[in-house]
Amino acid sequence: MALKKILVLGVGAQGSAAARRLDEDPGVAEIVCADYDKKAVDNLVNDLKKAKGTQVDAHSKDSIVAAAQGVDLILNALPLECTKNVLDAALEVKANYQDYAATTALHEDWVESIRIQYNEYGPKFEAIGRTAIVGTGSAPGLICAATRDAMRYLDTCDTIYNIVWEGVEAKRFQPFWWSPVTALHDMSEEAYAFIDGKLVRTPAFDLPIKRQYDYMDEEITFVEHCHDEPIHYSFNAEKFFKGAKNAYFKYAGAGVDFSKPLYRAGLLSHNTETIKGVEIAPFDVVLAHVPPAPKFKEEIKEIIDEGLVSDSGCMVIEAYGKKDGKDVLVETHVNAPGLVESYEKSGITAEMYLTGQGGYLFTKLFVNDKFDQTGLISSDMLTFEQVDAYFEYAAELDITLDTKVKEL
Q1: 232-267, pLDDT tens digit by residue?
Q2: Are 225 and 252 in contact (CB under 8 A)?
Q3: Which of 4, 155, 284, 390 makes a 20 to 30 Å CA pair with 371?
Q4: Domain range for residue 339?
Q5: Pairing of strands 220-224, 209-211
Q6: C-beta of residue 252 within 8 angstroms of C-beta of residue 165
Q7: pTM
């Protein structure tokens, strides 16, 4: 197995977490850390053994190409608007490609943009004998691998729920632990659900379901949220999800509680309006007042030392279907460290632990030559052997699955 050279493009909360793990991986020879923020690059590279840094303007494909010379894999941890440039750069330098979430950079319609990734970029990567895998953070990513794992317990699947509760809340104002612009974009959109075999739009914060799992002190209400998973599952239902006809992403937590009243008041609108002679989009005003996700060890420690309101959460897959002619529920819980434990283990937040390191686990599949697919796949299209390898790696980070099959 040849040692790999990897370009980590974007050194925010998630890219930096992945880079730190790659620095410790014996299969990695060199890491190129790249971002427009040279100070952030330098701060990260100074902590790593195998890394060198460079400044990149990701709005220029040529700038990315220059940084990507000789790399085996480009790990794209940039804002979604840059995805087209990164995909095109990967093709030009004949590198493998990985990102964290779907984008509208290829088409203004999100579903069509994903379709273009599969149908247009897939054949291009196949033609150069390379693999592109998209949606590889925690959700999408880790949760998709866990959903694939649930399929091994079913003969046929009818309905999939991906359920996430962001239960980490600081005493200070910190509604999001990942990119606020991405979070607020997701909060401001109608959601997608796969219902009766069709992908449909659903109202944001609507179609509530209530759950109280054993480790919850109270019942939690989960609502619709604009996310990648139902879209990918709709494309891959027959081949990878036992013919599923329904798939939902349900969300709860401090970010939802913060965003819902803003959405209802029209304050997440992207449409400009004139207020006291000033033309402005309400979304931009809200975004300007939301703090960035903490990514440096000292600021994370400061938040913990100030105190937490709660340090909990859940990531659950409920897959309903049939096994041996009986109606069953496959209920899978993802166990992972909370904020305090993530900091104690790795000096990072729980979000970075799951998303940045969840992404790293897909990178580790590349590093260990576990991908025999060429073309473009999403994280829900792993083989069961790849799923097993993924969770074998995850267990080393104390990320595990607890699965129960219940007759209904």
Answers
A1: 999 999 999 999 999 999 999 999 999 999 999 999
A2: no
A3: 155
A4: 142-347+400-407
A5: antiparallel
A6: yes
A7: 0.94
